[in-house]
Queue: 3 jobs
Job 1
Amino acid sequence: MTITVKDYTRHIKNREAEMRYLGNKTKLLNFIDFVIQKYDIKGHVFSDLFAGTGSVGDFFKHKYTVLANDFMYYSYIFNSSKILNDKRPVFDVFQKKYSIDVFHWLNQKTFKPNEHYFIYNNYTPKGGRMFFTEENGLKIDGIRITIEELYIDKIISENEYYFLLASLLESVTKVSNTSGTYEAFFKFWESRASKTFLIEPIEFNLTKFNTSNKVFNTDSNELIRNIEGDILYLDPPYSVTQYSSAYHMLETLAKYDFPTIKGVGGKRDKGKCVSLYSRKQYALEQFEDLFRQAKFKHILISYSNQSIVPLDDLVSLAKLFAVNGKINVEELKYKEYQNHRSSNKSNGEKLKEVIIYFEKETSFAKSPLNYSGSKDTLLPEIIKELPKHVGTFVDVLGGAFNVGANVVATNKVIYNENNKYIYGIIKWLMVNDSKQIIKSIEKVINEFKLYKRAEKEYYALRDYYNNNISSYLHLYTLHMYGFQNMIRFNNSQQFNTPIGVAGYSDDIKNRIINFKPKTKKYELINKCYTKFQWEKYPLDTIFYFDPPYFITSAAYNDGKRGMNGWNGESEVELLSIISKINQLGYKFILSNLLYHKGKTNHILIDWIHEHNFKVVQAGTSGWRYTKNEVLIKNF
Ligand SMILES: C[S@@+](CC[C@H](N)C(=O)[O-])C[C@H]1O[C@@H](n2cnc3c(N)ncnc32)[C@H](O)[C@@H]1O
């Protein structure tokens, strides 16, 4: 659907002049707000993960707690000045000492160059480049160094320091002899570059801000694992241009760290700031990872039809993570703005800027099958450790299917379980309509007059199951009332779990209703994992193993549950199979314990060291004796 911002009556006056910055959203702020209003998006915490000049956070700071991030340090400075202030800092210590406006004081200072004047010596004709005139280069260096000295001498606070640096950076863009970025300079002096440099206070909204606002300076895909909130705004680079290359000058001026520089543009090394969003073969999986890891209900993405990843591909990906697969694409009509971008064409196609909005499916569905060793409480930690791209996810020792069912894979999820009873129940739960399941369970409960701790009734159902009908409906119903929900059989395949204390409840009913694999395409397998032909799986498969724990005495270790016991031999066999999977080039994650109640799993620890696998603490599980769970992985 095409909308125009004209339709949107509440027009907040934008106080900011647009800074020359690729993808600057100053002109689109009302459009973002329009989408928020249109879809009645509610929330308290708003995060801008690719914050650039900080214009978005600044615009929304009066409404939300803002978390802003960008991996460029100059952006950290812009964001710190804008979203952590509601007025210009007062410079009281400075004022007391000098009784003059700090900007005026800086502008009237004169400077004498020396070999440490980095801009003057490298980016003016003095250094063979024409980014700035010599006169301006000298002033820029002098002011940059003075700001640092004021801060070191405690004449300005940290907040004042960032404010002055942000002001310096923005002012510099006004006298740069370039077309906007710093890849190259003009071979003549453009009129803006001939103006005398003046540091002017950076403009931002003088509206209230929340003191819990935070500015980060890291990779967004790392940060996303450690923050949460309500609205996630994503404005990643659209093109192959690396910001660390285009704005190397701002980075060097912000850090003033005397980097080694190269080439005509005098660029610093990009360091860690190489954006995979700007690389065609990686961009889509960066998004996949952000979507999967986001602990935000509402996701808004600024995007265009000229972006590296085709718009349709991004929409198809987003569908996998959205509630009911529903995605909204709002298109902005540029006519309304009459700005330079309206004439921007590529491949003959007119630039179309959009906001993709969707509600993310953030809840975890707990399996309706109560199962010893269930990973439902550790799901957040397991999901966090997934790689950026998950093509196929195999829950190799699937149990109650808590893990596989909650993973979004772009291709499919596979559940495998060797125990035919457990497999049978999961399959029965998956293939039947949940309302029908509930109806039939309630019918059995009524027929047998079951209630919690009702012994006679429970044993009557157990006999009925063992002697007459071995249906999964009856077995599943029994497990709800049985001792510790165990599904245990004797050697003659008779279900022999004694009565327990629990039973059918609203919780179980809701779990039956809500339990649906998050990945549409899934497959259920009932075989011994040792029989898997691993090499048949595509290379972007992740194998997840949640075996019985060798050093605990979980019920399934006693060999009485239709499964062979889990002993040292089983442990060695599992580890050697995982070594093979690793050798074949697949990624794996293994859940386990290294230590428990004074015992140490030496076999496992030696194996981890031998292969140099990564161990991640995954929290605790279990209610009687807590277990310190770890995830072992090869990526
Ligand atoms: C389109 S610009 C954002 C513009 C911003 N909304 C504004 O109005 O100024 C994209 C930003 O993403 C940053 N960026 C690119 N890859 C990143 C990554 N992996 N992590 C964090 N920031 C990244 C770039 O430094 C750049 O500032």
Job 2
Amino acid sequence: MSPKKSRKVEAKPYEHPESASPMRPEVGTQASFKKKKPPVTYRYDSSLAPEMVWDEKNPACEQGEALIRQIMEAESLEEAQDAAEKLKRMSAPFLNWAGKAEQAEFTVPTLPLFIHERLSTKVIIETLKAHKTDKQIDLPLLFADPQHSIRDQVLRAYEHQDKWVNRLILGDSLTVMNSLLRYESLGGQVQMIYMDPPYGVKFGSNFQPFVRNRNVKHNDDEHMSREPEMVKAYRDTWELGLHSYLAYMRDRLLFCRELLHPTGSIFVQISDDNEHHVRQLLDEVFGPENVCGVITFVKTSTQTLGLLPWVADKILWYAKDKESVKYNQIYLSKELGLEGASGYNMLESPDGTTVRRLTADEKADPRLIPGGWRVFSASDLTSSHYNPSEPYSFNGQTYTPGHRFWSTNREGLERLEKANRLVVIGQSLRYKRYIDDFSVYPLSNLWEDTGVAGFTSERKCYVVQTNSKVIERCVLMTTDPGDLVLDPTCGGGTTAYVAEQWGRRWITIDVSRVPLALARQRLLTATFPWYELRDENRGPSSGFVYKRRQNKKGKEVGGIVPHIKLKAIANDLPPDEEVLVDRPEQTSGITRVTGPFVVEATIPTPVDWEGNGGEDSGVAEGHADHVSRMLEVLRLSPLLHLGGGKAVKVKKVRPPAKTLNLSAEAVTDDTKEEPVAFIFGPENGAVSENLIYHAAMEARAKSYAHLYVIGFAIQPDARKYIEDCEAIAGVPATYVQATPDLLMGDLLKNMRSSQIFSVCGLPEVRICKAKGKLQVELLGLDLFDPVTMEANHLHGNDVPAWFLDTNYNGTCFHVCQAFFPRTGAWNSIKKALKGQYEEGVWDHLAGSLSAPFEPTDSGQIAVKVIDDRGNELIVTKSVTEVEG
Ligand SMILES: C[S@@+](CC[C@H](N)C(=O)[O-])C[C@H]1O[C@@H](n2cnc3c(N)ncnc32)[C@H](O)[C@@H]1O
């Protein structure tokens, strides 16, 4: 079918040529990464614990004594006042909780961030186009990939400045923010932070463990998270309930404060349950003088607890420094009879001779107002500020301002009269304020239009997703295009989505893979209007273009609206104009897509996990503990789950005698008592190829029948090694995924043993020829029974997402094609670019067969499959392995 002829629509993203960020290394280089940094210890401000202030062991005691001395010896009043103010702060009431006073400091590891994935919607679109036109595309340019050699990445990481790309980061917000501060010196550079943390109410209530299932049940074993980073973050958060929650929040707020620009703002979204506590924390960290407002916004879901229904949540807005905070007022359109226009209850005839009140019917339905009649409010013409106020005569009657003063002088009153702005109501002279003098009104701190009824078009992709209108307002109020926005609680990525829409740069962090997978899909497939830029070469930081425009009915519809004020008429000045930041000029013919972005993660810096005595003996010891814990778990839960109700049973588990590399040995029921070997991967990292290599060598030398590799995550080359282990090392091997519940200690007491260890699927892909090009098909996920070596098969169309890198370089994964099988994820872009691509081309992106592509220089392709729990499984293949 040939594409229909239609108006040409271009798809393009915003770029940020004026911003840079330090080069981060790519995943795979971590083994050679040398620039380790020690953990950082942060001291809390001890002046906040008054009972400790005068304890002589507390350094604050010295500080207090010094301040008293300063007051007594002060040479000026200001100096004494300043010291007294500090002293007063030291003994102000404060919020205390278990562990706060005792813990004077906290330590955070300083970890580098590694780039795991590069994404660019433009690449995916261009790849489809290339299929049609045979045009060569400059992939690195579209990915904004600077293509540093591994050597440069290792030697010059964090020194060299690269072009800015937006960032999705996997990791605990505390560790990631510490990395941004210590490795990248990002302190003072973030313009706005939006934080929507767990509300501190119920364990698990903010988590969605499955990519495609938004139902979250509390305390349901099946729905608990299985991800190690997330489980750890939550174990820390909830160990002491509210006490731990407060410490968790306070620590993160401290980092947020350090990251904020002097004119920056933070917004913390919270429910009524803990609003009062979080507000006190914000007072403590930012200072009560820096609160800018508490916003009440109507939620999309109502909570009815048998009493007053809870319909709203709060956003606590603090500035780093309220005196210099960046602020753009947001305006809403005035609608007669509604908020912002409630005082407009008078009508004036077209010739200006008759005035009367609006009827109730006209108020309820403004369409009943006769044509040409103007709506106004009879506003006060007096003020409490002194003005010479002699009586003023109007239409033969004399009026006085009563006990007050006229708002303007005699000359001003005369000008108002001449402009037909005076009206008599009862006995008083008033000012005619027409509704269209200013067609908008300022947004207040009560947002009633954010519930379902207000914005129905938005579809939730994440269980606790915030209405984007809410975050949009916060972004627009406190940032300009090109500014940097951070969200340490990404969830479904609403902040990143909104920041992308409005040309802001963004960084978003989440400890859990499921929300990150959802956010990635949402961003990759989004479309936005093209807001006209003042200077395209400079990108959004040059600002958007705003214009004054009216529709056919004379209504102001542009981004600049006149603001006619009494003062201007009285002083014969031109009217003021106001910019509506949310109404920039839009260019038709361009569909804006998300700009290039990266997925990054914290990875512990290399330590010698492989047990050869690393530099850090504490870590090696920790690993020994981990191995003995795992051994115990394997003894107690000796089932390796295969899915479909099948499992391999393990018996006689014990540590092997005199081993160099292996962690355990056992027998499986079907091996006729032949011993098999086990190796456990690290507690905090992925199983490496090196680990398996050494284990396999030893397993073979000691004639074990099989090697089981148990880990929480695995590197792709290690996964590949396992598949070929029998051929390479002479012993078959199987990867077994351990559930991260194991790291949760006692929190999950009723774990079902069959779910602790499961044999993990491996994507099965096929490369085939298509008219001189190549195509990749995801045949499915294969699950091998290690005993019978038979496979269970899940079809390629049954995975939530899969990605193809057509030129895999062995380190970072470049998403050249992104597939969301059996979904309409790409529909919005497909619709916007209608007619420019063959329908069938888009079908690829909703299925299991890629669009055709040219073989490339690396000779290697990689396929990454995202499973239902957000786990990533990567396989690589050489392009020479063409089948059919
Ligand atoms: C309420 S949700 C945010 C929802 C988001 N506003 C949206 O619109 O989708 C909170 C998120 O914070 C994440 N989170 C919780 N603790 C975290 C931590 N310590 N570090 C990073 N992310 C964390 C959770 O995984 C969850 O996705």
Job 3
Amino acid sequence: MSLIQEIDFGTPASKASTQVTLTIDGQRVSVPAGTSIMRAAKAMGTSIPKLCATDSLEPFGSCRLCLVEIEGRAGTPASCTTPVAEGMTVTTQNPRLAKLRKGVMELYISDHPLDCLTCAANGDCELQDMAGAVGLREVRYGYEGDNHLCEVKDESNPYFTYDPSKCIACSRCVRACDEVQGTFALTIAGRGFASRVVASQAEPFLNSECVSCGACVQACPTATLTEKKVIEVGQPEHSEITTCAYCGVGCTFKAEMRGEDVVRMVPFKDGKANRGHSCVKGRFAWGYTTHRERILKPMIRRSTSDPWREVSWDEAITYTASEFKRIQAKYGRHSVGGITSSRCTNEETFLVQKLVRTAFGNNNVDTCARVCHSPTGYGLKTAFGTSAGTQDFDTVEHVDVALIIGANPTDGHPVFASRLKQRLREGARLIVIDPRRTDIVRSPHIEAEYHLPLRPGTNVAVLSAMAHVVVTEGLIDEAFVRERCDWSEFQDWAAFVSDPRHSPETLEPLTGVPAADLRGAARLYATGGNAAIYYGLGVTEHSQGSTTVMAIANLAMATGNLGRPGVGVNPLRGQNNVQGACDMGSFPHEFSGYRHVSDDAAREMFETVWGVEIDNEPGLRIPNMLDAAVDGAFKGIYIQGEDILQSDPNTKHVAAGLAAMECVVVQDLFLNETAVHAHVFLPGSTFLEKNGTFTNAERRIQRVRKVMTARNGYEDWEITQLLSNALGHPSNYAHPSEIMDEVARLTPTFAGVSYAVLEEHGSIQWPCNAAQPAGTPVMHMDGFARGRGKFVVTEYVPTDEKTGPRFPLLLTTGRILSQYNVGAQTRRTDNVLWHEEDVLELHPHDAEHRGIRDADWVKLQSRAGATTLRAKITDRVAPGVVYTTFHHPATQANVVTTEFSDWATNCPEYKVTAVEVSISNGPTEWQERYEAFAARSRLIVDAEPAE
Ligand code: SF4
Ligand code: SF4
Ligand code: SF4
Ligand code: FES
């Protein structure tokens, strides 16, 4: 395996459709109009020396190294900033140009440390390369004059250093932060000789606005900004393309390695979701793979009060199978089930649901999508016929109006947020519907035209009011609706939303959204050009989650905002493989490709291939499994890659369900919360240790490639296979590609998917088949998958979770950029520096009323339970609303959330919990219990270090 090198064309590609022909160094070349001379030269194989240019950034023209001569023009213009012209004749190499370039390089080198041999960037430094390219052998000016060689390093960021002595003031870092990331954290302060890159107000990087995305590090042509791991271990020797295992954006990376050691993760320019960008998690937070707390050997215990006993894989699998067999013999076939994970690959989740349907012989399989995007599946399938988002991320480049509802992309989907911000800076307009003033509402050079800070739990009412404006003001796209949708259902819906009870003015007291703002937002969405809706868990995790998804679909259909680039309904999926886990048949009522288990033709297909009979009734969902366990009917569970005790609502009920089971099997990287109740612990593998595929929020199937040996001994799919064999259902895949072949055989929407096609195209957006081998970037172009688009009347039904004198505040939850979900991975990296604990945001009025000051310990109490955490007083939340994250188990935020859930899918109502906040008297019983557990885990780790 060699190091994958990407070509740097110097300047971005032109999107023009017309071609221009010119001559460079005697050779004719045709390129799109608007292309720079530098890029045109590179396209024909000529590298013009450069330092301040790189093709991820707009040309800047500061270093003057890329000078060329153009016939008929005076002087030596910079080739990076000069566009091509028809008939132009360019010379890139001659003695005059060589002399000029050498002179420029002499000036740079005279103020640069000459420590190349010991520099971390040796062999990967553009300054060094350019010195060679221009033939620089000596510097006439000497090194004695004023210079920057004694500048002090900034080591504050845990992942990279800033060494100003090596800076050539090319501004690539500043432009990367502005243009690519959109944070605007860096500037060049001072002038001339005093020019210096500074973060924020000349602060250390760690204390500045920098969000550690690493774009500046990647853009820096010298060792000024360098990954600490490169300094520590040296330059990488080989690399492999793989996919980030954190969020649903699905960024593609080059894992750059030395042997089996990851040196750095470099976002891949050809990655179609991320286009060469990343966030702090994907680029830097992979150290958990070798964290000492990782469990690498299987463990069993007869009772959860016994200590764990390390055993061989053989013993662990045999014991697990015998327990499941014993339980089924005693309590019946339906007394056991399994849970798949959106953190795992498609192949792994497919295998878990297959194990449940074949070896367990029931449909009791569910996935963590139950607690996040199950309403998306239900709502979009009802409206359009397909349980998936309609667009690819590239479509954002055509968006005129972005409507974000219930999503916080800057924190939850950062690379998509950066791409959206680029479009917003180009002039697209923004509507944000969110109880909090999230970062995207106002960030550098971006301001939402409308922020509708609705009261949590009133999404459907707000969307009905928007629809009211669209219909009553005649803003519908009637031609689209008549051609593409069911007209009579549309009329029913239009009559429903036109009712005065849905007017913004009538609903204002309920939603808290000023009617004038709501009217303005609705008009903008309907008339502002291409309008795209992006939504997240603030839509789905409600008692009316599915209704809200359908209300969004109604709005998009009514305004004709579907079926072309730049529009659509786009769920921002939380975990890396939420889409894939759902696609693979992880729900108890569906096979892969969303075919109901009662569909005789589909079921018979699976029965024939798998050689078993399959129930034609749906199995149990996660909450039903826990209820049945408490009732004594459900006794054994196999949980792959999920920590339901921390992630699922109403922790006490989850704990009671798990405690009532006789065999709880947890397969994970670390001893998680759920493992408190486990009898078997099967150590799992990380994304760096396995082969497979993930499917991101745009339905894009991408390869995950193994770059190191699985430290636990097996990839996760192999563990499921061992278990299946031990349970008596033979399974003998030699490679995950064979599992994908089976998925493709059994799933019409995956008909054309194979590892060979993935190799050829890099990725595939399903649906795909022989006619569309690379898949379908934009869905429903020529009609909806279900035929005619379905308008559903979406009556607002208030949640049963009500505020009152005991619990007068509404709690809503979310994420933060540096942490990921329950934090099992990110808490075991230096990302904790940015978020050491979960805090409770509350409005100054609510704080003052309760005598709470910033950073006070407070008790957060609901009718389900209580926890304590620190207060953060901020007007980002509206009065009456409090907000926290759930990344740290010590916080136990889900002790507070309730059992209420979406009426259609049981997705928990995480976003609305009635609570009270008071000054705390110390940790709750649950937090003390966690501490005791954590202490026990530490004992195991101390006794048996993983490394
Ligand atoms: S790491 Fe990212 S956010 Fe921080 S300064 Fe560099 S480009 Fe800006
Ligand atoms: S830190 Fe690197 S990218 Fe930024 S100005 Fe200096 S040399 Fe250029
Ligand atoms: S966490 Fe999401 S945005 Fe960040 S690098 Fe990974 S896939 Fe990309
Ligand atoms: S690369 Fe063109 S001026 Fe620097």
